[in-house]
Structure prediction request, 53 residues.
Amino acid sequence: MTSVTNTSRDLGELLPAAPDLIKVKIVLFKIAMDIKGGTLTVASTLRAVFVGA
Prediction:
């Protein structure tokens, strides 16, 4: 059982850095826009993941 004092430290270790969260948000947004536009392909997904972020 985890004590209350260890909870904040453990939570901080689990959360990635802010720049990583921003990159993930950008990639997910680009993929969602491809889905909305009907242009989602393997190439566009790879581009969003590797080039777009």
